[in-house]
Amino acid sequence: MSARLLILAALLTTVIPILVGAGAFFVALPWWTDSVLSRDPGTCMRKLQFVVSDEYVGWVSSSDQTDFRNSSYRLLFYATSVALVVTLIEVAAFASASAVPLFWCLSGAIGSVIVLFEAFTIAWLAQTPLRRTINCTLQQHANERFALATQTMREIRDVARQIDGTYASMSLRARTNVLELGRHAVLERASGGPASAMVELIGIKTKSEHDLRCVRYLATLFANVQTKLDEVKAIRGSGALQERVKQIENLFYSYDLAGALEDARWRDAYEQLKQIGSAVGRLCETPRGSTMPESVKDAYHTLNVSEETPLQNIKAVVNAYRRVWHPDLARDEVELDQFKLRMQQINVAWDIIRKAAE
Length: 358
Known about the structure:
Helix content is 79%, strand content 3%. It is mostly helical. It has four domains: 3-145, no CATH class; 149-212; 218-284; 296-357, Helix Hairpins (Orthogonal Bundle). The protein has a two-stranded antiparallel sheet. A hairpin with a 4-residue loop joins strand 1 (48-52) and strand 2. The termini are far apart.
């Protein structure tokens, strides 16, 4: 029997199985992607990202090489198995109807070797086309399967951007990636169907909207405290006052407050900002400088009265001020300096007015 005939027989038991195996690969590919989306959230986490931009909104696949090799090897093994089964069927059919069954067994063995060799060759040389095909199919099926969640994911992304912008105004950043939470929720709930994923997404969207309201409110408090703190720092006071300002500034820029804000511990952050704001507010009452009233006009201004106010009424005002600003009522060294200075201004103003009235 000629070698030419043997080669033709080997091709016959090779070409048809290869074509059938290629068809099996492309038939199995959509089934495999649906199976991954439904039953393998770990692979989806590595392979799929959700992108929201001006040009595109949807799911895109990554280029994870390890995951690609596992996927392609599985699919190629399936396609190769189908091709080998077709080869065996051909050999059995031709051998049973031929007078030379050994010839067909030999050609079938050659064809099987060629099929196996071709599968490994494709896996090695055609990685890029295979990866692109698998990724495109996975991306297409993800967008079809999760189309219902796309709009909600877009809304979550818009809220996340506003949250990030608010944090940036405080020179901070959120430690929770809201969009990533949404992506995980969709992929982990994929096996339960679109409705299950949507329930999870709506919950994430509701919570992110609540977080946005909280962080905006706290950002307003943060800005107000920062403005007042800058005003207090401009006051030229005693060393005790400057030391107190420094202590408050350390609390304002502390890791505790930043951590409470970044971790979305809203109640804790609110209490700290409220405490710091109260301390700054007390410091804002510090008289600007140590200027004493020198004229009658200055004295009236210091006591917040006018020239038409009767002297006995002015004395009542002075007595009220003395009770409020008595140094014994000071709560710390900073307030003690404030109270002493204020008391001196009140006494000097009263002396000026009293002498002018004599």
